[in-house]
């Protein structure tokens, strides 16, 4: 069956329908990872977005449910150049086609994803529609595309109740803003007992459990939409409890302490982004997935100073908070998918809590 990807600037791509046969409007973004498509699909940070994979062949090793980063896929839609119909892998349990259908996610294959990526790089991220309706009317659709917003998607992806991963080491409270599984796993395999809290949890409840440290997770959407969460994070900041924050958590801590954020032209999404540690000068290759960034031009050095920068474009990739046991990063040290270069940051966090590095 034919499918169409319609962008808000009027571009139309024609391909083949994959996954669910339904119409969807979403923000169109691209990811440059060559592998790890399952981890991309199950990353809650993609809620409210449709993902274009720039690597031309997707699905060749199938689906292995052990590798998922949450209980379900979160993108609104999926866009690929060529979809492998017959995956080959001894761990394969399913195909992408069936996976998308099972979770009612529409997609499109057979389009020029390189051309689509060039448009998004040149014009910036924009909204689009995936549809199988051959009688589409651009005059009707484009105003709908321009009106679309992702909204408050953190509420959609956070866990519904508190849960605990038992451990014999330090006690960590993980605020789930759309957390990937490997954040909790990365702490748990280092001995930590991890208590995962819904995003709506108050600072008072978290602090009442007397954690050794607090972890703020990744998540989707515009950080400025999370007004109530920002208020609670301010209280956590004032508590003097050691805090480590990743991605959306990094942005929310910045907003909670008086800094600002803005939307990037097309964001960073992929497993090959170089970040520089400003303290050591060392460069790490990182996994990233974000469309917003912290402004550092007017950052108050009495509150925080830049700790990492992106080598490609110079944008902020991390902050160290002055006089506090708090550090935050924009990239993903837990990776999945992506390189494990910066996994040492979890060890730094454990040492900050008074444990062994």
List unreliable stretches of 5+ residues: none
- Major pleated sheet: 10 strands, mixed
Number of strands: 19
Would you tell me the structural class of the helices and strands? alpha/beta
The number of distinct helices, counting runs of at least 4 residues, comes to 10
Order of strands in the sheet with the most strands?
Answer: 10-12-11-13-14-19-18-17-15-16
What's the architecture of the largest domain, going by CATH? 3-Layer(aba) Sandwich
Estimate nothing, just give the exact number of structural domains. Answer: 2
For this structure, the CATH topology of the largest domain is Rossmann fold
CATH class of the largest domain: Alpha Beta
Oligomer: single chain
Nearest-integer average pLDDT? 96
CATH superfamily of the largest domain: Class I glutamine amidotransferase (GATase) domain
Helical content (DSSP H or I, runs of 4+): 10-25%
Tell me, what's the shape? globular
C-alpha Rg, in Å?
20 Å
Topology overview:
Blueprint: E1 2-7, E2 12-19, E3 24-31, H1 37-41, E4 49-53, E5 57-58, E6 77-80, E7 82-83, H2 96-102, E8 106-109, H3 113-123, E9 126-131, H4 138-147, H5 154-157, E10 163-165, E11 171-176, H6 181-188, E12 193-198, H7 203-208, E13 213-216, H8 227-238, E14 243-246, H9 248-256, E15 260-277, E16 283-295, E17 304-310, E18 316-321, E19 326-329, H10 344-352
Parallel strand pairs: 3-4, 4-6, 5-7, 6-8, 11-12, 11-13, 13-14, 14-19
Antiparallel strand pairs: 1-2, 1-9, 2-8, 3-9, 10-12, 15-16, 15-17, 17-18, 18-19
Helix pairs in contact: 8-9
